[in-house]
Amino acid sequence: MNQYVDSEVGKLNTVLLHRPGPELARLTPRNNDSLLFDGIPWVGRAQEEHDAFAEALRNHGVEVLHLGQLLVETIAQPRARAELTGATLADPRLGDTLRDEVAEHLENLDAGALRDVLMAGLAWEELRAAGSGRGLVYRLMDRHDFVIDPLPNLLFTRDSSAWIRGHVAVTSLAMPARRRETSITRAIYQHHPRFVGAKLLYEPRLEPLEGGDVLLLAPGVIAVGVGERTTPAGAERLARRAFSRELAHTVLVVPIAQERATMHLDTVCTMVDIDAVVMYPPLADTMIAFPVRQGADGEPEVGKPQPFVNAAAEAMGIGRLRIIDTGLDPVTAEREQWDDGNNTLALAPRLCVAYERNVETNAQLERAGIEVIRIAGSELGSGRGGPRCMSCPISRDPLPAARSA
Ligand SMILES: NC(=[NH2+])NCCC[C@H](N)C(=O)O
């Protein structure tokens, strides 16, 4: 199957990554907070780290698709090109005069150059150098401002789309700095020849929902974190749609603290085996889940909240969900959680990719019988995302179905 994902751990066949590029070079101490980076990455080293990540995946038989490459091929379709520039020009901050100038500027770009602008944005000075830049809005901009904002978080392909079986949820990103990302994923899935006929399960105009919050615990069982990014309304909408298309029988809605350290469910919990997760210890005992199932009237029906580990085991039809801790002592656990120790990408049951810096967590995984492929991430990690955040699985081998609840 070309596009099919029903778990977090079935053998990974195809994945979508984004090799970071000029959009990272836009980050400065003035804008890094609003662009959701905790530091200023060294771009060349981040690219090397990312290349090594992609290479590790390919060495394990995974087909790696690159967002930039798919985007350039998508732009070749006139309708896609019009949609993508339309989404960029829709920014109300531009105003009519500047919008017309930017539109003309974009029209004159070839596919590669337009791709670069869509990803890295357009700086005030670049428009001036290109011979345009008039009108009130442009005149009152600071020379450091962007006419089109860059998208440095494209690196985290997990968040802007998520595949559930053969359907793709193009998500609805919560933070203003990331919203335009989904015009890119949407255009790719709708117009790139590789994805002809892809069924859209979710769309950017809907209630906030981010892929980092969506965990496919087992075929038919989806956990959705609600917190800083995904809203309860987003989880409810996803549940309703997944039920009506028979993609799931249970959605476990998991409240997580609305903080940067726990911005997505996958920052505190990822799966490493069909019945095991690596989890931040303070949450293992306290995290709860609201089980949502399809009621007789077809509407989502919310059950009693239960400890997450119990609710998960029950929905997955297993006796117990095994928990592997991040770090051994509370300080190490907290440090390694921050550095994405919990954010592993499974390539198959008991085989995962993790940042090498999380020494204790990786040792814990190995003690539990999980093979760990270590990658460097000192620069990549400055955007607060690990191997899972940086990857959107498009094809995994199916797992045997869980007992229907
Ligand atoms: N799935 C994830 N945990 N993604 C991490 C995204 C990090 C990114 N800087 C953001 O704040 O949005």
Automatic annotation (TrEMBL):
NCBIfam families: PRK01388.1. It is found in: Cytoplasm. This is Arginine deiminase. It catalyses: L-arginine + H2O = L-citrulline + NH4(+). Its EC number is 3.5.3.6. Belongs to the arginine deiminase family. The active site is at C389 (amidino-cysteine intermediate). It is an enzyme of class 3 (hydrolase). It comes from Pilimelia columellifera subsp. columellifera. It comes from the Bacteria. The lineage of its organism: Bacteria, Bacillati, Actinomycetota, Actinomycetes, Micromonosporales. Its main location: cytoplasm. Pathway: Amino-acid degradation; L-arginine degradation via ADI pathway; carbamoyl phosphate from L-arginine: step 1/2. PANTHER family: ARGININE DEIMINASE. Gene3D superfamilies: Arginine deiminase, L-arginine/glycine Amidinotransferase, Chain A. Keywords: Arginine metabolism, Cytoplasm, Hydrolase. InterPro entries: Arg_deiminase.
